[in-house]
Amino acid sequence: MITRTFGRKLAAALMASAMLAAPAAEACTGITLTAADGSVVRARTMEFGVDLQSDVIVSPRNYERTGETPDQKPGLSWKAKYASVGTNGAGLPVIVDGLNEKGLSVGIFYFDQSAQFQPYDAADPSKTIAPWQLGSYILDNFAGVEEVKAALPDINVAPVVLEQFKIVLPVHYIVTEESGKSIVIEYVDGKLSVQDNPLGVITNNPPFDWHMTNLKNYVNLDYANVEPKKLGDLTISGFGQGTGMLGAPGDFTSPSRFVRAAFFQTGVAQGKTSDDAIFEAFHILNNFDIPKGSVREMGSDGQYTPDYTQWTSADDLSQKRFYFRTYDNSTIRFVDLLKQDLDAKDIKTIKMDGYETAEEVGN
C-alpha cells in the first residue's frame, strides 16, 4: 500500500494549474429538501472568482491520507473506512462537496471575515489537518452526524496556508446524514463550534447563529398573496402575484441569500421521492445562479474578477448519487456511487467539463 500525502498532490496541482491568484469572495448557497417518502437531498451552488477546474472524484475505501500542518510536518494519518463521491478543485484529492456510501454528506462553504482556526501545537502535529481536508476526513470516517460530533474535539483544524491562493482558506461546513439531521461546523476565534441546523440552509459570513436570528426580521413574509387592505374608505390591493413575499431581500449578499433559500426550500411543493426532490432543488437554486459579471471584485489595476456560479450540485442521500451541472453545460448529470468500484486502488476522476448544445425541433 502506497501512502499518499496531500502535499505532493497539491504541488502537482499547482504546477498544472494557472490559478495563482487570490479568490474573489464566494457567494455559495446550500439547501436541503425532504421528499414525502422521507428521502433527503442536499444541494448547493459553487461560486468563485477564478476557475476552480473542478472534477467529480470517487474516493475508495482504504485510501490513505496524511493531514497538512502549518510547518509542513506530517499531521493526522488515516485510512478511509467508507468510499465517497463529490467535486474537488484544481486536481486535489479532497472533496469540496459530496457524500459517502452511508449517505453522509458534506459541503464546504466560504466563511471570509469570520473563520479563525485552532492554534497549532508544533510539538504534537499528529492530530492536525488543514481546513480543506476536513470534508474528506468526515466522509472517509463517519456514517452519521452524532459520530462526527463526537470525533471533532479530538482533531485539530489548524491555519494551514493553501499555497494555491497564498491564504488560509476561510471556510465552514455543513454535514447532513441520510435521516436529514444536519449540523454546521465553524471555527471562530480559534474555537470549534458545532450547531444543529434544523433548516439545512447555509450560505457564508456572518456565523450561522447570526443568520438564524436574522430570519426574525422577515416574520412578515408568506407564500400566500396578501389580501386587499382597507385604508379608511380606500381599498388597496397588490400588483398581482407574489405579494406575500414582498420585502424579501433580492441581492446576492450572504444574509439575503440565506433568507430567500430558507423560504424557497420550505415553500416548494414536496416531491414524492428523492428523484422529484433532486429536480426541485435545481429549480430552487436557479434563483441563486450568478451570471458571470453580475458580481465583481475590483482590483487595484481597475480590472475586475467576476464571482459566478461555476457548478451546482445535489446529493441524493438515499440512492447515494451525486448530481451536477456546470456554467457551460446546464444538463443535469449524475454519478451513482454504488455502481463504482468502492475498493479501487486509487481515486477515480470524472470530468465535469464540456459545453451544452441546443436541439432543433419541429422539422
Automatic annotation (TrEMBL):
Query: Is-annotated flag, keyword Signal?
Result: yes
Q: Where is the Choloylglycine hydrolase/NAAA C-terminal domain?
A: 28-349
Q: Which residues form the signal peptide?
A: 1-27
List, alphabetically, the Pfam families matched.
CBAH (PF02275)
Q: Which UniProt keywords apply?
A: Hydrolase, Signal
**Keyword Signal attached:** yes
Molecular function, one GO term: hydrolase activity
Family membership noted in the UniProt record: Belongs to the peptidase C59 family.
Protein's name in the database: Choloylglycine hydrolase
Q: Which organism is it from?
A: Martelella endophytica
